[in-house]
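Section 3.1: Structural characterization of target chains.
Under the original work plan, the team committed to producing a structural model for every single-chain target entering the pipeline before any wet-lab resources were allocated. The record below documents one such target. The sequence was received from the expression subgroup and is listed exactly as submitted; it comprises 532 residues.
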Amino acid sequence: MKLSCPALVLALALMSVGCGPGRFNTENQAKAAGVFRYPIINNPTTMDPHKVQDGDTIDLLQSMYEGLVGWSPENKPVGYLAESWEISPDGKVYTFKLKTNAKFHNGRNVTSEDVKWSFERCSNPSIASPVADAYLSDIQGFTEKFKGQAKEVTGVKALDPEHVQITLKAPTRMFLGKLTYLGACIVPKESFPPDKEVSDIGQMIGCGPFKIKSYQPNQLIVLDAFADYHDGAPKLKSIERLVLQDAVTRLNKFKSGEIDLVPLERPDIPGIQSNEKYKDQIHYYPRPSTYYFAMNELMYPPFKDKRVKMAFGMAVDRKKIVDEVLSGINTVANNIVPPGLPGGGRSDAKFLPFDPMAAKKLLAEAGFEGGKGLPALTLTFREDKPDVRMAAESIANQVKANLGVDVKLQSMEWGAYLTKFNNKQQTFYHMRWAADYVDPENFLSHMLATWGPENKLGYNSPEFDRLCKLADSVQDMDKAVQIYAQAEDIALQDAAWVPIYFQRDAELISPRVKGLRESIFGHLPHTTTTVD
């Protein structure tokens, strides 16, 4: 999830290369071999990998940029720029050996000095990264630099051109997982500005399997294969990402052969399932992601009363949303941590049941019987996903029917939504959190502890904090999972989050496309993908 950047869009619009606005013609090239076309719903929220936080943009940028490690199809951190690494006996010092053939898109070899410089850049307060400290604060000196209290990240050292050493404040079970995040990617100092967001296509030089060729805002992003990629040249010639906000347009372009892959919205699925031509082209992917609605007590005083939040949580029938509104594609979420993560999808979680009578009673006990006395309330959600809109409409309707509370609906442009969210100004909102790494910490401590970087709603439970801090420090995952389960039950009973469903993607993929690599997080960079 990441901010929109109008200045970036304007700059790129002025200097982008390739076809003129409105004149790119994918239809004439629809059957070109070696060109993989699939949509991105909005303009990238940023082209700066040290600032990106939304999944759609990450999917784009991970083809261009890489860090020391990344994900394998087995959902394990593996070496990307790093050939190997050693961990000290106390678990605090990681020494990485770089691949000697790793190059940037400008042809220069990647060295340990680039690694050092990249960590200094992403921790620069002037960059104002919304994600850097969240994922890299375990590194000695990183937070101090990020807060402007130090001039250097003392925990990152270039030992020689091929070796870099990273020292942590304490042993951290999930460190390699955090290091896969794009905020830790390596970029060249000769192209990336050290103290501001990239704003020119010529600055966007990475070391991933594809390099940027052109970007026309609201239209098209073109990436060309990088022949000198350290793991071998990609099999594709190029990737074209069409900016298509409308779901109907996306589906029609797939049917006309103009794109090779399209994510399906739930209203489209029954028709596709019954279509002889396309039914065998649907692919389903369970994802470690939880859709939820949340109540921000920093913005809406009644939400400071636990009974009010519990009432809202117990007034919404999640099964109805999943089965009737969203066609039964997803799974009802009775807990916060999704399946696919250790301890995820627990059957014994102490979730709040759907119970309208108990919900009404709780709201009355809080002094708002029948919703009387509650200030005006608006449920916000991103504007470009029909599934999200339908779920939000159902939430608002059920709160009205079961509690008597009028809830207005407001869709928001994704970048504007995220800006408001990052500033802790979303009051009552419907959203998703997708796992960044395979650890329940990413959904509990990271999201809901008082120190959690994604706690944007003022949730504060001393016992939840105590349990999370204890689980975070435990190196044995099985023991940590048991402690996290106790913390999760507290958050569920407090209605810190009201989980609705676990994500299951449905995608139409042309039979022309072969060699896609998968992890539980999504499609991996397209190094082996082919298009006939």
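Residues 1-30 have pLDDT under 50 and may be disordered.
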